[in-house]
Amino acid sequence: MLLRFFVGLALCTVFEKFFPKNGIWGPQNWFVQDTANMGFPFPTFFAWIAVLSEFFGGIALMLGVFTRPAALLNIFVIFTATFIYHDGEIGNSGLTSFFFMIMCFCILLFEPGKFSLDYFINQKLFKRMATISTIVLLILSFNYATGQANGFSMHYKTEAITVDTSKVQFYLKNNSILLHTL
User: Per the database entry, which stretches of residues form a coiled coil (predicted)?
Assistant: First the structure.
């Protein structure tokens, strides 16, 4: 969590490309010029992509939401900075960008952790999907038991079976400590 938070904070603030300088929001003229010097066909567009991925990707990393896509996008941006802009000089001018690329790669490889919005969202979705799949399974089993199964099910007997389902009741109980709603 700490790595994810501080890398995201640094991406938002250290490179200082999004916040206004000299009255200009977004990529500064020097950054657009550097992007053009690297050979990108639409330097203003790609400068904006880099600035927005660092800023909003950094916020996403800090919060832990869309963590892996944000880390992957920043790996591409920082890879470009390390190996094209700094000519692969990992020991000198490209050291900072190389470290950020490695840290984003570590965040990409490992899950965002329990203290992230991704973890919270995935846990909620998993529980909801488990509940929905249980209900669907029960409905399908009753559909088969009443003799109304579709043609894809296997027929074990050729005679019609009637079952009185008017007295069958289901109760769903929440056994967790925390209150959950469907």
Answer: none
Identify the domain containing residue 26 by its residue range.
2-109
Whether residue 10 contacts residue 100, with contact meaning beta carbons closer than 8 Å, is answered with: yes
Tokens 């009185």 belong to 164
pLDDT tens for 48-68 read 888 888 889 889 999 988 888
Any residues with CB less than 8 A from the CB of 63 and at least 6 apart, and which?
A: 8, 116, 117
Closest CA to 69 of 107, 14, 18: 107
Asked which of 67, 83, 109 is the last residue of a domain, the reply is 109
Asked which of 32-36, 37-41, 162-166 is least confident by mean pLDDT, the reply is 162-166
Statement to judge: residues 97 and 66 lie in one domain: yes
